[in-house]
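User: My collaborator and I are trying to settle a disagreement about how two of our proteins should look. Neither of us wants to argue from intuition anymore, so we agreed to look at predicted structures for both before our next call. Could you fold the first one, then the second, and keep them clearly separated?

Assistant: That sounds like a sensible way to settle it. I'll keep them separate. The first protein:
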Amino acid sequence: MRRCIRDIAPARFPAIVVLWMILALAHAVAAQAADTAPPPDLGVTLADESNKAEIVWEWDPYYTDVSANIPLTSKPIPTITSDSEAVIYRDLIEGSIIPRYMLLEASVYPMPVLGTYLKRRAPDFYKQGKINGSNINIFESLTAGFQEPWAVSAFFGNIARLVRPGETRTGTNKGYTGYLFSAGAKHIKNNVLVDDIWHELEWKIKGKRDYPDEKINWSFRLGGKFNNNPEITDVIYLGIYRSNLDHRAPILHWFKNSSFDLKAQFSQKSGKIVREDFVVGKKFPMEKQSYTPTLDVGLVWESPDEYSGALRDRSSNSLTLLFRPSIEF
């Protein structure tokens, strides 16, 4: 294979350029929207009186991003008022036929990037992470689960504000349903950066409800990933994710204060499963604290058919332990 291993620095430039473009575009759209007030729609519940573009930041050691929500029509964002997740999912899907919003996002994955940096720049220190008598490397366990260091994305679909019945606090809780196109220029294999221009197309439904006493995040997606590098298998994938933080529930509750993440990837040519990520997590809410320690553990199963040519460096399946301690704010 043309196994080109490079510094992480060349991968930063495109993301920074695209991020600058996103901010510039969002600023221009927001300025235009400020001069033109959308007509009222009496058939829709409004969360506010405007339909302007907005910038949203999310910070996390494993997934950090900045996004710009840009309306494509003059219709305001509708509100779904319900405490039932089933009702929220149903209403989001029903309103997803005609896209009315565009969301541009630039994301970077700090811990996976750190893993590639350590293996490249500090190989002796990286090897010290191996647990004696096993094939487990603590650095691989801490950074596993991401196959790219960064990505840029464009979402086309619908957005709805999510409100609990009786809730008076104005928040930014939203649900999204539609199509997501993502692209990048690097692939991560065993904490080694490999040259690959890749792109993904997926349909997804995701959302976030963030209240003082409870936080819920979910994402359900179906898509395909296409790689310019012929030695990386093109796949179709299915992903299911749900996370709940409830300060009112016991810490050891089996459903609340927990998370679940499953992603299965199938070869586009053979239909055989080539990779599966399975992660479960537990959250430990602390009384009168604004932060919550979390711990995710799981497994990454990989078939040798995930790669071909020089990248196919084994003939049997592999299993990697995944370990992610973190803090949720």
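The second protein, kept apart from the first:
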Amino acid sequence: MIAKRHRRNVNGILLLDKPPGGTSNQVLQRVKHLFQARKAGHTGSLDPLATGLLPLCFGEATKVSGFLLDADKRYRVTCRLGQTTTTADGEGELLEQRPVPALEAGRIEDVLARFSGEQDQVPPMYSAVKHRGERLYRLARRGEEVARKARRVRVYDLKLAAREGEFLTLDVHCSKGTYVRTLVEGIGEALGAGAHVTALRRTALGPFVDQPMVTMDAVEAASEQGRDALDALLLPPEVGLVEWPAVTLDPDSAQFLCRGQAVFVPRAPGVGWVRIFGPGGFLGMGVVLGDGRIAPRRLMLA
């Protein structure tokens, strides 16, 4: 009988460059196994087809993951005009094929402008949204379709990056909960041809913009070298909150805060979330109260 590998406490964020072909959870479980980590989670699913930035949070960094789930995202997506599929991407069955009309760049830009800004978007059937406790994509695979409630999303920026024949490449900056496949379907219909996604890559998430990603091959290679090589790939938990104001406490205040007490901080930022640091480094997350005190909310364990 083979003994189970010993799990260990690992803390930090891995900016993984997700490979195509697997679900986000499958990738997470593989990396978690390589790190032999006790606790890990990801910060928002990518479709199996998709590649790119998938921040994985280990140990105490999972306390940051919820805030990253709410962060905006950036994608580069390639879509094929003239074809629609059951899943709105290349993994689905062909539904309809139409001729692609002659499209000048100005016409495409006009349509893209219509899909920018706040809008209501209905989640696709092939999505992880739950209906009565069951994932929509499971229902869709059984041939079932149910009514879905529209969600308010925001497309901050939508630009044409390239066009080659019937293929468009778009750069998308959007809020959480935005389905790029649904966005592409709408754009295709507005252009009079229909469309589906052929390639999707997440390039940024929240504060992680233009930062180097770690490939799965690099993680595999580091695992052969040992724990120190793996841990060197991790970023500290606080990097996921760099857009928040920071507060540094003196030793006495840090001690009181770690006991769960709110502490007074001169010239504290306005009411809201803050990163809290003490003499020993990052302590965790807190909120500024109306009287200027800092109250602990999610502290890092020593």
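Some points you might bring to the call about the second protein. The first strand starts at residue 12 and ends at 18. The longest helix spans residues 24-35.
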